[in-house]
Amino acid sequence: MIRAMLLAGSPQVAWRSFAVIQAPVNPTPAGARKSDEVDRLLLSSARGDRDAFAAFYDATAALVYGVALRVVRDPARAEEISQDVYLDVWRNAGRYLPGRGSAKAWIVTIAHRRAVDVVRREEASRRRSEQAGRRVETAHDMVAESAEGTDEKHRLIRALEGLPEEQRTAIELAYFDGLTYQEVADRIGAPVGTVKSRMHTALKRLGYILESTK
Amino acid sequence: MSDVHDLAAPYALDALGDEERQRFESHLHECAECQAVVDHLREGTVGLAGAVAIQPPNRLRTEVLEAVAATPQNTVVMDIEQYRRTRRNTIAFGVAAALLAVVATVAALISVGDPAAEILAAPDVATIELTGPAGTGRFTYSAEAGRGVFASESLPGVAEGRTYQMWLIDSSGPSPAGLFVPDDDGRSIAVVKDLMEGVTVGITEEPSGGSELPTGEVLLSGEI
Questions:
Q1: What is the pTM of this model?
Q2: Half-sphere exposure (CA, 13 Å, Cβ side) for A85?
Q3: Is A17's CB within 8 Å of B218's CB?
Q4: Which one, A63, B75, B154, B156, has least CB within 10 Å?
Q5: Are the CB atoms for A15 and A6 separated by under 8 Å?
Q6: How far is A127 from chain B (nearest CA, A)?
Q7: Is ipTM over 0.90?
């Protein structure tokens, strides 16, 4: 019957070779993430849409600048890094694959990597000698530092605070202070294997909290 | 706990030394499982970043957007084989073979840019073979994304004033779905939008500019 309709829709003899068959389409696998608005802005940016890129900037600038500032601890350099990151992202937006993760995770990864590399390359020895005597900054201190914190920021700080102390310390020393996992292990006097598994559990929990409160 | 797989979390936190980072990145190219774990854990780093988020000075926005206006974008050239290895849950989705077939068809490289990346990144990506008098071609699509990519090396070049045209055929008849001509290397690539379940994809040769209804013989077709 479908074939008859097809032929009715097109007089060409050639179309007899088509037959429409309903075939099941693969179901969406469980656990696959749905893309969000920020992902879509980045995908549009990849097609040269500068308005979408401006909106993408607005949605992510505080994350990018915040991470850069926390790691390099110098506003001028954090600005420099942020500008480099956004230009890099604009040029290479087509490399973003939404099936692999969120656009926020993508740009935050680029920003953090760059900030850590800057710090390690140019200031490694100085920073490490300074930090040797410094106490570990806690999530509480971060709240106190930021009078301009948003609800979202406070929510994430609470999520960090909700992690077991030893897990939080492990990821904060690595992510905010740019230490390697071996350096973290030395600092807190724990075996490297323990540090790695604390990092794993802590990141998984944070990701879960983010996803479940979206 | 001395396995290379344990480095996913330190890697996601940028907490590996240079040498170890390089070694782990080589490992990631070979290990889809580790890549999937890294992708997953990186979502957690957004939480860390969010906890230290601070609005930058307004001048940064101006500077970035001015620089962007003067900066061309890179063309994305995607190596499908590389992508297949690192893709999340590739094997679980049962499309490894399908993507390998695409690789065979388009010689491992595709450069149609973002739409292709979007399709390949979709969780429900699948491939069918189009057959007919013109030989064979592969159609890789995602019903969820509503898009597909056609790739073939068997279509002959078209004469001046002629083009190949893609069609989507459902119970209401054929609708035009885009024009393409093979490149200098004999490779044909075309992206199709507005794809729906249960349609048939077909290709004919038409006058330049395309036709509203097909006028040529069906050279390749297949049902999705």
A1: 0.61
A2: 33
A3: yes
A4: B75
A5: yes
A6: 16
A7: no
CA distance B199 to chain A (A): 6
Q: What is the pLDDT along chain A (214 residues), one digit of tens a residue?
A: 344 433 333 333 333 333 333 333 333 333 445 668 999 999 889 888 999 999 999 999 999 999 999 999 999 999 999 999 999 999 988 888 777 889 999 999 999 999 999 988 876 666 555 555 454 444 444 544 444 467 888 989 999 999 999 999 999 999 999 999 999 999 999 999 999 999 999 999 999 888 877 6
Contact B68 A90 (CB under 8 A): yes
Assess if CATH 2.60.40.10 describes domain A36-134: no
The residues in B 147-166 lying below 8 A from A, measured between CB atoms, are none
Please give the DSSP secondary-structure letter assigned to residue A94.
G
A5, A97, A204 ranked by CB distance to B121: nearest: A97
Structural domains of chain B, ranges and CATH numbers in brackets: 4-69 (1.10.10.1320), 78-223 (no CATH)
**Which two tokens mark B205?**
């040769």
Give residues with Cβ within 8 angstroms of A140, minimum separation 6: A161
- The whole-angstrom separation of Cα B38 and Cα A208 is 14
Measure A74 CA to nearest chain B CA, in Å: 12
Question: Between residues 60 and 79 of chain A, which touch chain B (CB distance below 8 Å)?
Answer: 61-67, 69-70, 78-79
